User: Fold this.
Amino acid sequence: MTYTLCILLHCFYSCHYRLFCNLGFVDISDEENPTPGGFVSLPGEPLSIDLEDGKIVIYTNTSKITLDMSMKEIISTENDVDIPVDMVSIEKDTPPITTEAPILEEVETTTTEAPPTTTTEAPEPATNDEIVVEPATNYEVVDDTEPDEDSDEEDSGIDLSNWANLLGGGGGRDLEGEQVAVSIGSDYNAVADTEETMFSIYNADGDMVSSVDADSITDIIIRHGHLPADLGEDESLGIEVAGYAEELDLLFVNSKRANLILVYDVSDKEAPSLHQVLPTGVHPAQVKWIPERNILVAGTSKDARDDKYRAAVVVYKYGADTPQYPSLISGDDENGEPIPWSAMSGLSASDEEDTLYTIEDSIADKSRIFKIDTSSSPAVITKAMYIKDDNDVFKNLEPYGEFDSTDLAALINDDNTINVDPEGIVVDEDGSFWIASEGSGTIGDEKRPIKSLNFVIKTDSNGIIEDVVTLPDEVNDIQLRFGLEGITKQDDNLIVAFQESPR
Assistant:
């Protein structure tokens, strides 16, 4: 049996500014080792994908394209057709699965890099089960077997003006492509409010029976370290209900900005409960639960080569005894609020039992030290301490070379917190900390001017700066932007590591 994942990639520009749109194929017969299956180039900008008479049908902004599934070739292209804003389909009923292990485990991630070619050699014809996923708009299960004469399956369009009539397995989207409704069996529907970062469950009469609010969802995202650092005060986390596993009563809720799938147990429709959190690539756009395989497939829609990340397909396997993710979450601060964190950098053991210390890198405007309790799984951040220059030790540092007083002042905030680039940390015997901060900029490079030297910062056990050490002048004179990355202490000596040695 061959399973092929089909990914409709939206247009992107190559380095020569030629426009490419592609239908990509990924073989997931072995879900732990997805393999590329080639691409078919498409004219126009893809809007939606569907099935008609066993053929893949793609609507672009200019035409309707029909492809043969087994040969993965374009059969016909029709112009001057009515282009639907979006299309939603109902998948055929599938038998329930019997596994009792309640965990989804991430199996593999495959990036969807599309070469500028028209077609590839046709792979072996598919047998009877194939999965078509379009991360940016909609999805469909491809079944090229003969239809069951006794099947009562129907193709059904979705009228978003009356979402209470949504049928099992289907869903609805708004005009921006956001997943706004997913049916939960035949009697309930989950509806997302993407602006308010929440979702609700309604019965068939349109009565709301439960709701998961923004505070609850945001709390989960913060504790898992996925709150975007650049999230605006009034900006949404991009919540959308994305799918439902009927056999398990699990609802999949995407957060596009947090790059997570929140999995909720909705067996009690009046009290949804968080079952699990799954990490994705950047900007998850759609998920597909495949019950006969016990796997969940997620597609991401953001692809930014300049920022060094690509669109991806992530496959999760249901049935692990314990989750792979997360390995670290945060507890409450002194005010009972979740401790925000992200982009952890260095890590150090300590003499305290079941305790580690870590730091976050330059993504934070105010550099912090974190205390971690490792006695449980996942480990828990129990304390966050700002690195502060309360005694003006950092402020009184002597600038050197291309690193001037203006650069130094920019590293110290008005409240005496600092914004450097901590990359390494080691705990001293007395509970104080030594922190390696990576320099910024390259000597003599106008495109990457010096903004910071490499520093070794000594703080007390509360994060108050006691000393700042710079490298020898002859090293600062040849600084590269790849600087200090790690630090440790042996007897009375500090040992630091460079990502790339100055030369």
